[in-house]
Each structure stands twice: as C-alpha cells, then as structure tokens.
UniProtKB/TrEMBL annotation:
GO molecular function list: holo-[acyl-carrier-protein] synthase activity; magnesium ion binding
Cross-referenced InterPro entries: 4-PPantetheinyl_Trfase_dom, 4-PPantetheinyl_Trfase_dom_sf, ACPS, Ppantetheine-prot_Trfase_dom
Entry EC no(s): 2.7.8.7
Superkingdom classification of source: Bacteria
Signal peptide: none
The name this protein goes by in its record: Holo-[acyl-carrier-protein] synthase
Residues binding Mg(2+), per UniProt: 8, 50
Keywords from the UniProt entry: Cytoplasm, Fatty acid biosynthesis, Fatty acid metabolism, Lipid biosynthesis, Lipid metabolism, Magnesium, Metal-binding, Transferase
Organism: Subtercola vilae
Subcellular location: Cytoplasm
The family this protein is said to belong to: Belongs to the P-Pant transferase superfamily. AcpS family.
Lipid biosynthesis found in the keyword field: yes
GO BP, sorted A to Z: fatty acid biosynthetic process
Catalytic activity: apo-[ACP] + CoA = holo-[ACP] + adenosine 3',5'-bisphosphate + H(+)
Length: 125
C-alpha cells in the first residue's frame, strides 16, 4: 500500500547562492558523505530530503543528518535513514522508500513513494 508520495524541486542557482552566503548550511543539511558533491547534486539531495518529509506527512521527527542519500554502482539513489528519522518513518508504517532524483539546467527535483502498511494498519490485535 502507498503510505504517501512526495515531490520537491530546487532552483539550483538560488541554492548555490544560499550555500555561498551561509557555508555552514552544507554541514547543517548534509551527511559527511554528501558534503563533497557538486552543488547541483546537493540541491537534488536536498529536494529528496524535503520530498521524504512530504511523503511521510510533516516535519516532526525528522533531522537532516538522519537522512542520507547514497547511490549504487549504477547511480540509483536510495535513502539511508538513522536516528529519530528512521524511527519516525517506521512509526508511520513505511517499510520501503522508492526515490528518483534528477537535475537539469537550473532545476533539481526528487520524487519519493513511501510504501508499507501505514500507521496503525496491518497490526494484529
């Protein structure tokens, strides 16, 4: 069952200006493994983090560093969740996250489908 979907788009030049104006933003928003990436890739990852929050239903229980986006050898992205964010996603009944990211020109976007039983559903009593 689809628990939720989320989509987000980021204006790459605007994101770049924000990062240049406030360099600490990169440390605040991204895991250590993500920080050395190109600005357009960071923008896509930020969109992926925002899309996850939207798919699950709101910002409560999410921490930026608890959401890491990694890619496999073929470049397919996936979430690695930890801490409070992992607990929050699990509490919402999400068992699988499907992620797609893209960037072209001045835009970076991400789309996520959260799949699972949903909060309170599928629990046997």
């Amino acid at each position: 069952m689809i628990v939720g979907v989320g989509v987000d788009i980021v204006d790459v030049p605007r994101f770049k200006r924000q990062v240049e104006r406030t360099p600490a933003l990169v440390e605040r928003l991204f895991a250590v493994s993500e920080r050395g990436l190109a600005v357009r890739s960071l923008a896509a990852r930020f969109a992926a983090k925002e899309a996850l929050v939207k798919a699950v239903g709101g910002p409560n229980g999410f921490r930026w560093h608890d959401i890491e986006i990694v890619t496999n050898e073929a470049g397919r992205p996936r979430y690695v969740l930890s801490g409070l964010t992992a607990e929050t996603v699990k509490q919402h009944g999400v068992s699988t996250l499907h992620l797609s990211m893209s960037h072209d020109g001045d835009s970076a976007c991400a789309f996520v489908v959260a799949e699972g039983a949903g909060a309170g559903e599928g629990d046997e009593q």
